[in-house]
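Why does residue order matter? Because the sequence determines the fold. Keep that principle in mind as you read this record.
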Amino acid sequence: MFILRAVCVAVAATALAACAPDSPDTSGDGGGPAVGVTATTSTPTPAVNSTSPRVQRTKSPSAEVPATLRFTGTTVEGKRFDGSSVAGKPVLLWFWAPWCPVCRGQISQVEKIASDHKGALSVVGVGSLDSAGAIRGFAEDVTGVTHLLDESGTVWKHFRVKQQSSFVLLDASGTKVFSSGYGGSKELDDRVADVVR
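Structure:
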C-alpha cells in the first residue's frame, strides 16, 4: 500500500513538472525573472519612425488620378469605363452627337489622330444627345476609338461641354491643355502632337 502511494505521488509529480512552465531563476544572478514573477515571451513591436525607409506610405488611388479623370461611364458595347484607366498619358476626348453632320465629317481626322499616336494617346469618343441605338450606330463607323454611351450627358457635364462637336485634350498629368467647341482643326492636330512628344 505504501509503495502504491509512493508510485502515484511520483507519477503525479512528473506529470505536473512536464506541464509547468520553465522554473524561474531564483539564483539571484539576474539571469531570469524575480521569484514570484511569471515569465512571458513576446515579440517586441518595432518603433514606427516616419523617416524610416522600412515604413512605406501608399497614396490612395484617388490621389493618383487627376480630378479630370475621376469619372465613370459605359462603352457602346455595354462595358464599364473608368476614367482612371487612361491616366498617365495624354487623352483626347471627342464629344459628338450621331445626327451632327460636322461630327460625321470629323471621323477621318479623329481616326488619323488615333492611328498616328496609337499607344501614346488615348482617344475617347463621348456620344450623347440621342438614343442609345443612334449613338451605337454612329460609333460603329469610327475605328481605333473607345466610345462612351452618354445619353444622360454625365460625362459632358463633367467636362463642361455644352455643344457638339467639341474636343478636350488632356496632357499626361490630366491637365486640360486645349478645348475646341464645334469642330476639329489643324490646331487640334498640332496640339495633340505637342502633348505626345
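The helical segments are 2-19, 61-64, 101-105, 107-116, 132-139, 154-158, 186-195.
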